[in-house]
């Protein structure tokens, strides 16, 4: 209940981003295809883009209704084009790396299909084949491998030292006094207590801990975090960058061995004790940490490409505009707000996960 949605790891972020960015095998025959976009050196057809939207709604079903919003669909098109371009720039070595990864990923995907009836039904409804998923995974891996290949050791060292808060390894105990709860059946959020009530309860816990109270007993009694309440509130040897921002800052800056003042996050108030914090010099970090650092740099480079380079690709979109699809006089109230609220595809949102 502590993890944030920050896209620290490029690989994880890329897999979320390219859930809406893939190249599909087009049918060799059928109705005449129409261009929906052109760019320097290429184009996108309606069949290609519609196939992509079908896969997108299978992978991200919560966004199914949003694809009909013109501004949102335009975002998907822009991102799709960017990944086609970047995938084509991958070196032979990057392509080989991608192909090896995809072979393993497809084995896992096929195994999942044997037991995941909902996924299989969704694929069947859209008439999607394993080859469609393989093409998606190949584009994903090609872009990831390509962006990773652009990262230098100097960039990695700078990223690590500048954002050490994200790469520290910490062991913390905490007791969460939540302000809301989620129905596990309906996923509906309900208020558990007000912020004022949560703060008062958190201060009560801190007083008991300062007086020598037992973490194991108090966590069981007071904590609303199911991931740690039965373990005395302990999260051991965790990557600090995984926490939500306020918790992350507290676990990095708080004095070791001292119960801190309650820290407010989107979940409620946390009473935190940092037991251990490890921040080795860059040349001493593990290979796994270096991969995380590389992922973060690659993600930054991807964002830079989207901002600086994609506009140079002379993209011309031929998708219908909002006013062409829905006359202003017929548009229901709130359409503009809905379009504005469409999630940005370079930073997809995800619910915080319970550890």
> How many individual domains?
2
List how many beta strands DSSP finds. 9
User: Helical segment tally?
Assistant: 14
The percentage helix is: 40-55%
Order of helices and strands: HEEHHHHHHHEEEHHEHEEHEHH
Main beta sheet: 4 strands, antiparallel
Q: What oligomeric state do these chains adopt?
A: single chain
Strand content: 5-15%
The helix-and-strand class reads alpha+beta
- Major sheet: order of its strands? 6-3-8-7
First and last CA, distance: 6 Å
Rounded to the nearest angstrom, the radius of gyration is 24 Å
Low-pLDDT segments, ≥5 res = 5-30, 325-355
* Overall 3D form: globular
Averaged pLDDT: 84
Region (Disordered): 315-355
EC number: 5.2.1.8
Organism: Paenibacillus endophyticus
Coiled coil: 106-136, 185-212
Describe the structure.
It comes from Paenibacillus endophyticus. Keywords: Coiled coil, Isomerase, Rotamase, Signal. Residues 315-355 are annotated as: Disordered. Residues 167-276 form the PpiC domain. By secondary structure, the protein is of the alpha+beta class. The protein folds into two domains: 10-156 and 287-340, no CATH class; 169-278, Chitinase A, domain 3 (Roll). Helix content is 49%, strand content 13%. Helix 1 packs across helix 12 (287-309) and helix 4 (92-115) runs antiparallel to helix 6 (130-149). The longest helix is centred in the first third of the chain and has 24 residues, at 92-115. It is globular, with a radius of gyration of 24 Å. Mean pLDDT is 84; it is low at 5-30 and 325-355.
């Amino acid at each position: 209940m502590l993890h944030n949605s920050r896209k620290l790891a490029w690989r994880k972020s890329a897999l979320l981003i390219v859930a809406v960015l893939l190249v599909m095998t087009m049918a060799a025959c059928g109705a005449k295809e129409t261009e929906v976009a052109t760019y320097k050196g290429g184009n996108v057809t309606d069949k290609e883009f519609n196939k992509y939207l079908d896969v997108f709604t299978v992978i991200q079903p919560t966004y199914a209704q949003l694809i009909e919003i013109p501004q949102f669909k335009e975002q998907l098109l822009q991102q799709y084009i960017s990944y086609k371009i970047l995938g084509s720039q991958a070196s032979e070595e990057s392509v080989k790396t991608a192909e090896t990864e995809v072979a393993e990923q497809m084995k896992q995907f096929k195994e999942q299909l044997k037991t995941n009836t909902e996924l299989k039904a969704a694929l069947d409804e859209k008439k999607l084949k394993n080859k469609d998923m393989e093409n998606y995974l190949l584009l994903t891996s090609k872009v990831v491998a390509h962006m990773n290949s652009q990262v230098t050791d100097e960039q990695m060292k700078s990223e690590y030292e500048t954002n050490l808060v994200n790469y520290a390894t910490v062991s913390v105990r905490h007791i969460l006094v939540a302000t809301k709860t989620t129905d596990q059946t309906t996923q509906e959020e309900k208020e558990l207590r007000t912020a004022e009530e949560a703060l008062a309860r958190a201060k009560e816990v801190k007083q008991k801990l300062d007086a020598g109270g037992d973490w194991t007993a108090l966590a069981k009694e007071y904590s609303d975090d199911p991931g740690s309440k039965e373990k005395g509130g302990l999260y051991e040897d965790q990557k600090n960058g995984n926490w939500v921002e306020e918790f992350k800052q507290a676990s990095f800056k708080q004095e070791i061995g001292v119960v801190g003042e309650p820290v407010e996050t989107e979940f409620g108030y946390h009473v935190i004790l940092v037991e251990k914090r490890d921040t080795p010099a860059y040349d001493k970090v593990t290979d796994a940490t270096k991969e995380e650092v590389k992922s973060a740099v690659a993600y930054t480079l991807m964002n830079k490409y989207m901002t600086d380079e994609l506009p140079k690709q002379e993209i011309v979109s031929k998708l219908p505009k909002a006013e062409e699809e829905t006359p202003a006089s017929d548009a229901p109230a709130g359409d503009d707000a809905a379009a504005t609220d469409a999630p940005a595809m370079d930073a997809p949102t995800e619910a915080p996960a319970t550890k």
